[in-house]
Amino acid sequence: MKNHSHFAAALLAAAAGAMAQAPAVLDAAAVLEKSQAAFYYPGADMRARVVMELMTAGGKKRTRVLTMLRKNLPGARRQRYFLYFHEPGDVRRTAFLVWKYPDRDDERWIFIPAVNMTRRIAARDSRSSFVGSDFSYEDVSGRDLAADAHTLLREEKLGEAACYVIQSTPKAPAEFSRKLSWIDKVTFLPLKEEHYDARDQLARVFTADRVETAGSGKAAYPTVLKRTMKNVQSGHRTEVVFETVGYDLGIEADLFTERFLQQPPQKWVR
Amino acid sequence: MRDKAISGLVSFSVDHPRMVIAIILLITLGFASQLPKITTDTDPKHMLPVTSPVRQYNDQVEREFELHADNLVVGIVNERGVVNRETLSHIAELTRQIQRIPGVVVRDVASFTTIDNVTVEDGNLRVSPLLSDVPSSETELENLRKTLRENPLLLNRVISADGRATAIYVPLEPSANGRQIANRIRELLPKSSAGDRYFLAGDPVARDTFGSEMFRQMGLFSPVAGLVMCAALWLMFRSAAVVLANMAVAMIGIIWAGGLFIGLGFPVHIMSSMSPVFLMAIATDSVHIFNEFYFRFGEAANKRQAVLQTMAAVARPVLLSDVTTAAGFASLAAGPIVPVRVFGLLVGFGTLVILLMSFTLVPAILILMREDRIAVAAARQRQAGAALSPRLAGLGAWLMRHTKAVTLAGCLLLVVAGVGLLRVRVNNNMVHWFKPASDIRTADRALNQHLGGTSTGYLVVESPQADAMREPQMLRAIERLQRELEKDPLVGKTFSVVDYVKRINRVLHNDDPAFERVPDSAAEVAQYLFLFSMSAKPGDLNNVVDYPFQKANVWLHLKSWDAGVMRSVIQRAGRHLETDPLPGRATLRPAGIAYFNLVWNDEVLWGMLTSFLAGLALVLLLLVLETRSLRWGLLSFLPLLFTIAVIYGAVGLVGKDFDMPVAVLSTLSLGLAVDFAIHFVGRFQQRHRECSAVEDSLIWTVARPGKGIFRNAILFALGFLVMVFADLTPYITVGVLMAAIMMLSSLASVIYLPVLIKLFQRHLVKEGNP
Q1: Which CATH number do you get for residue A179?
Q2: pLDDT at residue A21 greater than cutoff 60
Q3: Local structure of A218: helix, strand or coil
Q4: Cβ within 8 Å of residue A217, ≥6 positions away
Q5: What are B672-688's pLDDT values in tens digits?
C-alpha cells in the first residue's frame, strides 16, 4: 500500500516536472545518453593497459596492472569485457570476463590459475566494489539510465571546459540518494561526478584528471586517460591510468568466451 | 614569617572588609565567566595521556586495519528464532534507517542485509548480501537458516548457535555522540515486536550515557549535599551567618577551582565531577573559626579584638589541616591517570582557595556581623560548649581503664583487615559502573549470553617480511592459535584472514567441507584473497590484513569487560607460542579496547599505589614538621593508617572490585582523615600544658574537642552519604566509602589516640612539654 502511494506521488511529481520544464528533462536524459556513448562505448572494440592504484587514507598503496579488452555487440548496447591481470605477481593470469546487458544482471566468470579453475559468478549487486577499488562495477561499465530520473541543474564551467550539470535520482530506493555529473559539452565525457549517500552526504567523487584524444588503432577518440574515484568518507581512493589505449583493433568476438579465459591469445594480453 | 603574612592578611581584611569582599566577588565573577565553556570527557582511552604507548599503538592498529574505535551493537533476540518473516523485515528496515543516521559510518554497518556472502549454487559462485529480499516461502527461510548455520564467519557474530539472536553492528564516526545515536536507534525500534526483544550495547553507549548521567547526577547531588550540610550546620550552630559563610567559602572554592580548570581547557571527567562535594566538605573547616570566635567574643566583648584573637588562635591548625588536605590531593598528580591528576590538582587548588578565604572572607564577614546577633549566638554557644558531653567523658574514662583490651581489639581488627587486604581484586569494568538492572547492563548480559561478546580485543601478528600473511604455514599457525584461544570460555569468537581463506577455498570447491582448510600453496592463498577482495567489501579484508600482507589482525570477541579476561587471553597465547611459535620470527602484539582496559587497570593500580605512598610520606613529613617531634608526628599518623587498612580490608572481604574510584579514594582519604588526629593531638597538648595530669587531660580532650571532631565527621559523612542515592555505582562507592572513612577515622582518633598516648606516655610526654 505504502509503496503504491509513494510510486503514485513520484509519478505525479515527475509529470508536474515534465510539464513545467519539459525541454530540460528531455535534455538531461539525452545528454547522459550521449555521455555514456562517449565514455563507455567509443569504437567497435578497445584495448587498454591499465594501472590501477588503490590508496588508503594513510598513504599505503596496492597496485594492479591489467589488460582490459572491450567489444561492443551489435544493437541494444550489449558489451563484453575481458580483464587479464599482470600484477601483483602472485595473481598473474587471473582473468575476468563480463557480459554486460543494459537491462539485466551481468554475467561474470573468473579464472583462478593456481587451481586452474573457472567459475561463473552470479553477482546481483552491480554497485559492489570493482576488484576491491573505489569504483563499482556500475562505474566501470555504466548504470542503466532508465533506473534514474535526470534533471539538468545548470550549465557551468569546470576549469576550462563548459559543462552540463545533471542530477540523477534513483527511481527505486537505493543506497545512494543522488548523483551529480559534470558532462563536457564538447566531448560529452563526464569530467566530475559527486555521489551522495542515503543521508544525502557526499560519499564519493569521480574526477577525470587527464583527457586526450587517443587511440593506437584505426581510430582515436577523446579518452579519459587518468581518472580518480575518492571515497571522501573513508579517505580511500583509487587512481586508474590507461598507459596505452587502442580502438577498432578488430578483436575477435570469441575471445570473450569461457574457453579463452584460461589461455587468452598473447597478442591481445601481452 | 608565615604567621606574619597571615596576620597581615587578617588585619587588612578586618580593616577593609567591604573592599575585601568586593575584590573576592570580582575575582569570583572572573572565574565564573569560564564555567559555561565546560566540556565532558568519558572516553576511557583518555584516561592515559596521548603519548602513552598503548594509546599510540591502538591508534596505529586502527589506522592500519581501517577499524572503527567506536561500535554500537543492536542485539535482536526472538525465542522462536530470528529467521522468520516479521523479524527479518524489521531487521531490513531498521538497518536501512540506521544507515541514514548522521554520525554512523554507513559503509560499514553490518547486518543480514549488508554482509556480503559468497556461496556456490550449481557450480556458480554467488555473491550477494545474506538477505536481499525477505524470503516469502518457508523453503527459502530454511535455506537462509542453513546458510547462516554453516558459515563459521557468521556464527556468533550475526547469528547465535541456537538461531535465536542476531545483531546489527553500527560503527560510529570519531566525532559522533554514542548516546545520541543510541537514542535515535531506540526511536527506530519497531513498536509491534512480534516476540522480538531489542538490546543496545557497546562501549560508546556506556561511555556517553555515563557522560550525560554524570552531568545530571552532579547537578542533582552537589546541591543536595550542600543542603544537607547546611541543615546539619544549622542544627549545630543555629546561626545563619555560620551557614552562609560556610557555603560562601565552599562556593568560592568550587568556582575558582572549576573556573580555572575549565578555563585552561580541561574537560570534566567522572572524578572531577565530584569535586564540588569534596570542596563543600573541606570548607566545613571554617566551623573551627566560628567555634572559637563565639568563645572569644564573650571574653573580649570587642568585635575587632575578638576576630584578631580568634584568627591568631586557629591560624595554625586551620593552616596545617588545609595544607595536609591540599598535599594529599595534589599527590594524586604523581600518578599516570590523567583525570585523577586533574581531579587532584583541582581539589588541591580549591582547598588552598578555601584556606585563603579563611584568612580573608571569613574575618571580613565576622567584622560585618551585627553585634547583638553575635552576642545571642555566643551566649548559646558558651552554654552548649561549657558543659562536657557526659557520654563522651564516660567514654574517655572507660578508655583509660581498658587501654590494653582496646589496643588488643584494634590489633585483632588489623589482622582481619590484613586478610581482607590480601583478597583485594584489582579490576575495572566500565559496564559495571551502571547498576545491574540498568538497560546497559541488561543489554550487555543478553548479547554476551547469545553472541560472541560485546568487548573486543585484537592480537596483531607482525612479520618482518611483506607477504608473510599469504604463506600457508603462517595461516595454519594463526589458525592453531585461534583454536587454542577459543578454549577460554570467555572468548566467544575469534576470526582472522584465515577464516576468509578457508571459506573461499570451500566455496570454490562446490561447498565441500573437506576444503574448509588453508590451501597448500601461497599462490592459491593470494588468488583466493584476490577473489575475496573482488567479491566482498574492500573493508572486510582490510580489517584483518594490512596492505603489504605483513600484519594480520586476529579479532577476539570477549564476553566480559573485566580487565582480567584479556590478561588471561594474552597469557594463554604466550604459553601456546612457546610450544608452537609463529613462523619467520613473527611476533604477536595485543591491542583493542579490551587490551586498553587491561593496561589502564594496571596503570591505575601502580599509579595509585605510587601516589598513595607519596601522599603518606608527604602527610607524615608535614605532621612531623608541624608537631616538631617525630614521635608525635607518627602518633598523629596512626589513626589514618588504621582507617585505611580497615576500609580496604573490608573492600577485600566484601569482594568489591578495587576499581578506579576505590583506588583514588585511598589517596583522597589521606589529607581528609588526618585532620581529626591533628585537632585531637593539638588540643590535648594545649590542655596538658595547662593541667599536667595526662589522664585527666585525655578524658577532657575526648569529651570536648572530641565532640567537635565527631560533629565535623558527621557533617562530612552526611554530605557524602547523599551520593548513595545516585544511579551510577562510582558515586555510590565514593559516597559510602568517604562517609565510612570519615566516621572511622574520627572514631580511630578519639578512641586510639588517648589509649596510645596513655600507653606510651613515658616516651611521649617525658620529652617535657611538647
Answers
A1: 2.50.20.10
A2: no
A3: coil
A4: A43, A47, A246, A247, A248, A249
A5: 778 888 888 887 887 88
Residues within 8 A of B (CB atoms), A 141-200 only: 173, 175, 197-199
Cα dihedral sign, A157-A159-A162-A166: negative
B66·A88 Cβ contact <8 A: no
Report CA B623 to chain centroid distance, whole Å. Answer: 30
Residue of B100, B507, B512, B534 to mutate, interface with A, max A Cβ within 10 Å: B534
The phi, psi pair for B515, rounded to 5°, reads -95, 10
- pLDDT, tens digit, 9 for 90 and up, residues B61-118: 888 888 888 888 888 888 888 888 888 888 888 888 888 888 888 888 888 888 888 7
SS3 content of chain B, % helix, strand, coil (to 5): 70, 10, 20
Tell me which DSSP letter residue B540 carries: H
Chain B closest CA to A113's CA: distance in Å? 8
Per the domain annotation, does A233 fall within a domain?
yes
What pTM was estimated for this model as a whole?
Answer: 0.79
If one counts the domains in chain A, the total is 1
For B16, the grid coordinates are 577593609
Indicate the length of chain A as a whole number: 270
Place of cell 544507515: B99
A61 and B541 within 8 Å at the Cβ level: the answer is no
**Backbone CA torsion sign across B551, B552, B557, B558:** negative
Nearest to B526 among A91, A117, A201 (CB): A91
pLDDT of the residue at B44: 65
Residue that the C-alpha cell 586510639 belongs to: B752
* Cβ–Cβ < 8 Å for B496, B482: yes
Q: How far apart are CA A170 and CA A175, in angstroms?
A: 9
Q: What is the mean pLDDT of residues B709-717?
A: 83
Dihedral sign of CA atoms B668, B671, B675, B681 in order: positive
Minimal CA separation from A120 to chain B, in Å: 5
A18 domain residue, yes or no: no
Q: Is the pLDDT of residue A193 over 90?
A: yes
With cut-offs at 50, 70 and 90, classify the pLDDT of residue B696: confident
Look at B60 and A11; give whichever has higher pLDDT: B60
Cell 595534589 belongs to residue: B330
Statement: residue B332 has pLDDT above 80? no
Nearest to B125 among A57, A121, A199 (CB): A121
Question: How high is the ipTM of this complex?
Answer: 0.82
- Determine the residue type at B331: S
Q: Does A59 touch chain B (CB under 8 A)?
A: no
B720 pLDDT above the threshold of 70: yes
In the predicted model, what is the mean pLDDT of residues B259-278?
83
- Minimum distance, in Å, between the CA of residue B476 and any CA atom of chain A: 19
Neighbours of B111 (CB within 10 A): 24
| Averaged pLDDT for residues B700-721 | 82
A153: closest CA of chain B, how far (Å): 25
* Short-list B715, B720, B672, CA closest to B221: B720
Range(s) of the domain holding residue A124: 25-269
Do residues A234 and B537 lie in contact, with contact meaning Cβ atoms separated by under 8 Å? Answer: no
Has residue A14 been placed in a domain? no
Establish if A18 touches chain B: CB-CB under 8 angstroms.
no
Would you place residue B380 in the very low, low, confident or very high pLDDT band (cuts 50, 70, 90)? low
The three cell numbers of residue B534 are 573482488
Q: What are the grid coordinates assigned to B115, written together?
A: 554482509
For residue B66, which amino acid is it?
E
With contact defined as beta carbons under 8 Å apart, do B310 and B293 qualify? yes
Helix (H, G, I), strand (E, B) or coil at B200: strand
**Is A17 inside any structural domain?**
no
Grid cell digits, residue B411: 590489633
User: Out of A57, A60, A91, whose CB is closest to B527?
Assistant: A91
Cα–Cα dist B605/B597, whole Å: 12
In whole angstroms, what is the distance from residue B28 CA to residue B18 CA? 15
Backbone torsions φ then ψ of B466, nearest 5 degrees: -70, 160
